[in-house]
Amino acid sequence: AQSVTQLGSHVSVSEGALVLLRCNYSSSVPPYLFWYVQYPNQGLQLLLKYTTGATLVKGINGFEAEFKKSETSFHLTKPSAHMSDAAEYFCAVRGATQGGSEKLVFGKGMKLTVNP
Amino acid sequence: DAGVTQSPTHLIKTRGQHVTLRCSPISGHKSVSWYQQVLGQGPQFIFQYYEKEERGRGNFPDRFSARQFPNYSSELNVNALLLGDSALYLCASGLRTGPNTEAFFGQGTRLTVV
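ok -> structure tokens follow
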């Protein structure tokens, strides 16, 4: 079965500082990995995804993530935080359903606060 | 184009009651999935429907049921509501199933059970 671990629940950075959100996964098959962002009272928006190919994935809003198989990690980074980045971030891995279809298995999420 | 739309946006129910949540997928999308997001947690998979057939079910009790209609919209039904059913219920649609199919999420329905 697939699973995702996001250690901690809250990260606080200063505006302009590096954003680093950690995600480790467990998967018995080559993983498909995702980062989603959720703004208050909103649904989930896809930031970026890794399926196959290049291990450094670029997403929207200046975010990127690197797939490291040896470390089973898919950490999310952004060189310079902006106030508008304040939100909750979820790492997810594609899992299988009993019906042979797919589902997303999410981590517990990380709330990012950006201080002026 | 309209995104995934869910209704209602908020509702309050009493323990023991029944609730129906509705989801309209993006036009052309044939797959709908439902997720439950309890406060402070990540979303948990409940159901997936594709072409009106159930293709996956998460670890939820039989009080939870769903269906997909010929126009690909979907309903999630929860019977005998418990306080623990209070959550944000998210619907996601996709063109089809398959590992490369992107899921597009609606804004969710916030259910409060009192």
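Chain B touches chain A through 31 residues (CB under 8 Å).
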